């Protein structure tokens, strides 16, 4: 490992401008970020915008990933498309070097105490297959001599095979997303949710790429605790396209779903 290791994913440089560290490095190119950390950075900005109106629940976050996100400086822009009494819609952009890298839309909702009546069908909500305390610690296969996303997160295998078909894996951030801040539960989910296509890889990582072109996260409630579980599987269309789907859990049970559209190619 390099002697100067980062201790956070991003360092603030100015309003809405951040420098991504080696902890954001992804598996496809050593000069590009994994999409999880920048998605969480956008999530952070949208949470802040919603909080100004008392809207605290991030119900949906969709990212259209236009270009690879380079290591280094990035800029975040957020605007309100509509703000109502119980919900608000936001748009956001991620930029670097004058280029638009990703576009996002999000739905923030106002929370209200509304207990689920006993006997409601489908409730209580399901739990993850195994609690993280009972799971084996594992390391992402692209961990190596350079600091990367594999060092940003801690993983534990709940079921399946890691990076070799359907898998259920717990994630926990080892380091802050932004220097000097404690990540919100939503930011923790965003960092993890973009990894569904990796942990459930149906093809050999060495011979194929299966980069996601988008990411949609839907959450039914506020996540609890530091751990996020992805029960993920990848389906391939045989046409160079695919879909990764993840059921999301925290330690209290089901919190939502995430989907990723994949571009599948043989690596040269």
In short:
12% of the residues lie in helices and 43% in strands. With 268 residues, it is mainly β.
Q: What fraction of the residues are assigned to beta strands by DSSP?
A: 35-45%
**Radius of gyration computed on alpha carbons:** 18 Å
The level 1 CATH classification is Mainly Beta
Order of helices and strands: EEHEEEEEHEEHHEEEEE
Number of discrete helical segments: 4
Give the beta-strand count.
14
The portion of residues assigned to helices is 10-25%
How many structural domains in the coordinates? 1
CATH superfamily: Acyl-CoA thioesterase, double hotdog domain
Instruction: Tell me the distance between the termini.
Output: 27 Å
Structure description:
Helix 1 packs antiparallel against helix 3. This protein has a single domain, classed as Beta Barrel (Porin). The radius of gyration is 18 Å and the shape is globular. The model has no long low-confidence stretch (mean pLDDT 96). The chain is mostly beta strands.
């Amino acid at each position: 490992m390099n002697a100067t290791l980062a201790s956070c994913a991003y360092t603030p440089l100015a309003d809405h401008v951040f420098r991504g560290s080696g902890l954001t490095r992804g598996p496809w190119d050593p000069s590009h970020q994994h999409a999880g950390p920048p998605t969480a950075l956008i999530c952070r900005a949208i949470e802040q915008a919603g909080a100004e109106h008392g809207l605290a629940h991030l119900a949906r976050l969709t990212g259209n990933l236009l270009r690879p996100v380079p290591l280094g400086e990035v800029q975040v822009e957020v605007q309100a498309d509509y703000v109502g009494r119980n919900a608000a819609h936001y748009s956001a952009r991620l930029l670097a070097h004058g280029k638009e890298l990703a576009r996002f839309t999000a739905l923030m909702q106002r929370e209200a105490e509304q207990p689920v009546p006993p006997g409601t069908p489908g409730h209580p909500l399901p739990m993850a297959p195994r609690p993280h305390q009972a799971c084996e610690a594992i390391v992402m296969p692209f961990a190596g001599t350079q600091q990367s996303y594999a060092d940003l997160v801690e993983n534990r295998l709940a079921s399946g095979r890691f990076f070799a078909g359907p898998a259920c894996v717990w994630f926990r951030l080892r380091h802050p997303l932004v220097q000097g801040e404690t990540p919100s539960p939503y930011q923790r989910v965003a960092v993890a949710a973009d990894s569904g296509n990796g942990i459930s890889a149906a093809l050999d990582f060495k011979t194929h790429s299966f980069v996601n072109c988008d990411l949609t996260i839907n959450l039914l409630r506020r996540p609890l605790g530091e751990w996020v579980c992805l029960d993920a599987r990848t389906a391939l269309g045989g046409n160079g396209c695919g879909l990764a789907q993840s059921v999301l859990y925290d330690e209290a049970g089901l919190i939502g779903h995430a989907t990723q559209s994949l571009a599948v190619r043989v690596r040269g």
